[in-house]
């Protein structure tokens, strides 16, 4: 059925095609890396496990999963106003993140084809999964009279260069936190079916297993490269990426608390559960995890939440741009200080953490 409501508050590059969200420090990023360095990696210390993971990718458990059923065949006009806007933003952010993974994995598969066939096939099969996810999310946006031009997105977004080990940290955490986000929503809606306002959430149980398998692949890659985990620099970088991923999610989700309220979830409680589970999971490969149960951790994140509200208020106010920039400086300084203090909070060595099994 065709929705009749107008699309609230969205710019379009052409009718029905949403202009990509403005890039900020909190939006999903597109990545590139040193492909030759990846090709030269010695994966022999963990080759058997990587081959076992490849076999799981080949089985393709979700081959027939991402098929829209009759539950989508209705009008969604009852999701209107601010709720509609928040829901479209959720779909766009999720689609962009999945498509970012597709582009990176596809290029890795192409570049490694003749240099490291095992890794090349793994990356190609992960790109297959991410393409399905992105396509399914983009089709969901069409139920709200919008879609993303993924080809335009490919050409228009800036690409961030990360060395391979940083790609491994970031993508491992992205896949694992994606698993915990999806499964937590699914389990909540399974217990509270009246909160399931749109059928895409019913697909999350199988969907998140793709994220989990991808995370396991990067886990195996890192353990095949001991220098990514076992020296003092690795501990500093693991701490940095854990904090970056957790802080980004918390700041994004608290800003969109009304979306989670639509699903019967309290954004902060949801995020704390996801952060705790992802932190524990990371302890199976990372040498350290964050002390997320220390009250200071969330107190400082809440200061950043308040600061970001101040930044948005300045953006919405009148006056010259340079005046706004000056007004923002102390807020940026405060956010930077909070991040520094969070980074230097004493982490937990997983060898001393009884709650994590290495």
Low-confidence stretches: 1-7, 354-358
How helix-rich are the residues, as a percent range? 55-70%
Radius of gyration: 21 Å
Strand content: under 5%
Q: Whole-Å distance between the termini? A: 51 Å
What coarse outline follows from CA principal-axis ratios?
globular
Q: Give the integer mean of the pLDDT values.
A: 92
Helical segment count: 12
Instruction: Please give the largest β-sheet.
Output: 2 strands, antiparallel
Q: Count every beta strand, where a strand is a DSSP E run of 2 or more residues.
A: 6
* Class from secondary-structure proportions: mainly alpha
Identify the strand order in the major beta sheet: 1-2
Element-by-element helix/strand order: EEEHHHHHEHHHHHEHHE
Note down, in words, how this protein is organized:
- The chain is mainly alpha-helical and 358 residues long.
- The chain has twelve helices and six strands.
- It has helices at residues 35-39, 47-59, 81-112, 117-142, 150-156, 164-191, 204-224, 232-255, 257-262, 267-282, 295-316, 321-343; strands spanning 12-14, 17-18, 30-32, 159-161, 288-289, 348-349.
- The strands form three sheets. A two-stranded antiparallel sheet has the order 1-2.
- A hairpin with a 2-residue loop joins β1 and β2.
- The longest helix is centred in the first third of the chain and has 32 residues, at 81-112.
- The radius of gyration is 21 Å and the shape is globular.
- 32% of the residues are buried.
- Residues 1-7 and 354-358 have low confidence and may be disordered.
């Amino acid at each position: 059925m065709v929705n009749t409501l107008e699309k609230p508050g969205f710019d379009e590059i052409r009718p029905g095609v949403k202009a990509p969200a403005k890039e900020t420090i909190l939006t999903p990023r597109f990545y590139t890396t040193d492909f030759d360095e990846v090709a030269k990696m010695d994966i022999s210390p963990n080759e058997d496990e990587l081959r076992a993971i490849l076999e799981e990718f080949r089985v393709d458990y979700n081959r027939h999963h991402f098929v829209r059923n009759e539950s989508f065949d209705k009008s969604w006009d009852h999701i209107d106003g601010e709720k509609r806007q928040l829901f479209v933003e959720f779909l766009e952010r999720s689609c962009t993140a999945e498509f970012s993974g597709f582009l990176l994995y596809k290029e890795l598969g192409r570049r490694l084809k003749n240099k490291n066939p095992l890794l090349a096939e793994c990356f190609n099969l992960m790109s297959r999964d991410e393409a399905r996810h992105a396509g399914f999310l983009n089709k969901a946006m069409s139920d709200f009279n919008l879609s993303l031009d993924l080809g335009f997105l490919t050409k228009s977004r800036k690409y961030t260069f990360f060395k391979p080990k940083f790609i491994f940290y970031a993508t491992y955490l992205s896949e694992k936190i994606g698993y915990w986000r999806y499964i937590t929503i699914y389990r909540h809606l399974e217990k509270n079916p009246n909160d399931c306002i749109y059928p895409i959430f019913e697909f999350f149980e199988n969907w998140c297993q793709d994220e989990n398998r991808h995370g396991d692949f990067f886990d195996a890659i890192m353990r095949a490269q001991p220098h990514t985990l076992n020296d003092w620099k690795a501990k500093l970088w693991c701490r940095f990426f854990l904090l970056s991923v957790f802080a980004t999610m918390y700041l994004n989700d608290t800003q969109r608390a009304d979306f989670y309220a639509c699903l019967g979830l309290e954004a902060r409680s949801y995020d704390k559960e996801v952060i705790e589970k992802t932190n524990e999971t990371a302890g199976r490969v990372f040498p350290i995890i964050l002390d997320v149960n220390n009250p200071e951790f969330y107190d400082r994140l809440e200061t950043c939440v308040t600061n970001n509200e101040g930044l948005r208020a300045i953006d919405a106010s009148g006056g010259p741009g340079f005046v706004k920039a000056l007004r923002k400086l102390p807020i940026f300084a405060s956010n930077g200080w909070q991040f520094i203090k969070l980074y230097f909070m004493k982490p937990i060595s997983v060898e001393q953490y009884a709650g994590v099994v290495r």
